[in-house]
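Teaching assistant here, posting this on the class forum so everyone can see the example we discussed in section. The complex has two components, and the goal was to see what a joint structure prediction looks like when all of them are supplied at once.
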Amino acid sequence: MTCLLRVNGVHFGYQGNSVLRQATFDLEEGSCSALIGTNGVGKTTLLRIAAGVLRPASGSVSLRGRPMETIHLKEIARTIALVPQQLELPFEFTVQQVVEQGRTPYIGMLRGPGRSDRMAVDRALDLADISSLRHRIFNELSGGERQRVKIALGLAQQPSLLLLDEPTQNLDIGRQVELIDLLHFLQAEGITILASMHDLHLVDKNFSSVLLLSPGQPLASGSPEQMLKPSILERAFQCPPDRHPLLIGRAELYRREAL
Amino acid sequence: MAIEIATVSGAPPVGNLRQEPDAGGRHRRKLDPLALVVLLMVALGAVALGSLATGAVSISPRTILAAMLGRHPLTGTERVILFHVRLPRVLASGLVGSGLALAGLLFQGLFRNPIADPYVIGSSGGAVFGACIGIFFFSQWSIFGFSATALLAFAGSAATMALVYALARSAGKTNVVTLLLAGFAISTMFTNTSYFFELFDKTGASNRILISWLHGIIGIPAWTNLGVSAFLIAFATVASLPLMRTLNTLALGDEYAQQLGIRVESARVWIILMGSLLTAVAVSLGGMISFAGLIVPHVARLLLGPDHVRLLPVTALAGAIFIMLADTLARTVFAPSEVPVGILMAFIGGPFFLYLLRKMKRSYTV
């Protein structure tokens, strides 16, 4: 497999407070990775750096072997889509108008959207299952519907790498399953996925690798089996092993497997 | 490997799953933008004709039309009234309206805020201040055919916008309260400092110009001045066209826009420059006219939705019609006295601004 994105020794801080220290990882083409860690540990920051929105204080990020800072913004936008946690709009844009913004890196300043742009938008709306909402006003949608619009916006960019910041937030369990199915479908289409996740139940069977950010520790990575061990999670999340059903359940699972 | 979504095979995995009920949601049904542009062009012609016909000496629209077609010769008096008094003023009011409305559209998009207007956020005040320096100290100077007064009005407007923008921005967002307070403070400071220049005026001539600007009176400009102003408004409008799609993307937020390939900083600079140029031209023709840049883009948005590409021509035309009508009212309602159009607009725009503030509190998330 070839490396799509390489993050090497990245350091980043806000106003002197260090958030990321020596973060290093590779994303292989077609992989589906989960980024986990405690609140405020720097997951969103790492995704923003991977998307080229933030420049690391030190270290390097390269896309298909090319340093990120040497690549034109529009080329990055045609390759990487970041689906953020929040999207607030000041005016009454419809869902379709919001998703059409995903075509910005393909449309020149004076040229309007063409047939391929309209097809890409329709496809993105279909994939996110929001075609019926296309004429609704974004600001009037529920949290779950907005989440799907943001994903459609990212898909309209036709990216090779889709970065999702807590994509299951505001989704009920049925929609969470739909989202996971969508991620599998996109992965099968060749899109590389990196999603920051809080719900570790969803990470276990659905992601091929896990990146773990722990406060003050270097970024660790491995398969879900390696990274979701109770001993690792207990240390990373500073959670007593007998207090959370996930850790209790996984401890039980590992006991059974050992037998 | 970038996928070509248009050629991707296979059904999306969620298509056969539950579809969320769509009933009850508000759908956008807006007017056809092309039809609205045609309608506004006809309305602009009708309003301009009505405005030319109205005044202390009444000349019927039919007479004006017949004269334009060469079928009815005008009397000497009618010719002077029409071509030396009313026509320059009607054209000036149209340019002022277009300039202020387009500047409002640009600033509202830039600040992601429907209450941004050249007057409210201090851009007009900055232009008047810059122009005052030009009138009182550099009235004989010109560069490349542009008077120092006009250039300093532009510089004052752009510098004020940059200052207000820098003050109102924090962590990638525009704070509404800071925006209003900074705009109010700078506008008040500049307006009152402009009065200070009276002390330097020995003859009173400059002072009269200053007062008419501060009250918002559209005078009767010289044809050369009108030509330069029309060129600048046309230039800024055409130069703003490519920025309209950028404004749509900027509505998602600066970081999102950058992630979509927009060079946010350079886009901001262009938007501020074009908005300031439009404000400066409008101020140089009509002085401080409040709220036109607030009301017109807002009404256009209600009719067409928030797509800036569609809003540009409609805002320009509607702005011209709006100020043309307001100026006709201003010079005829209390005839033979004349109400400064700036004061008339304050009566109309003030309550509208309060209404918008109240509406924002309810429905806008900024």
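For the discussion questions: DSSP finds 13 helices and four strands in chain B. The beta strands of chain B are 142-143, 146-147, 169-170, 173-174. Think about how each of these relates to the inputs above.
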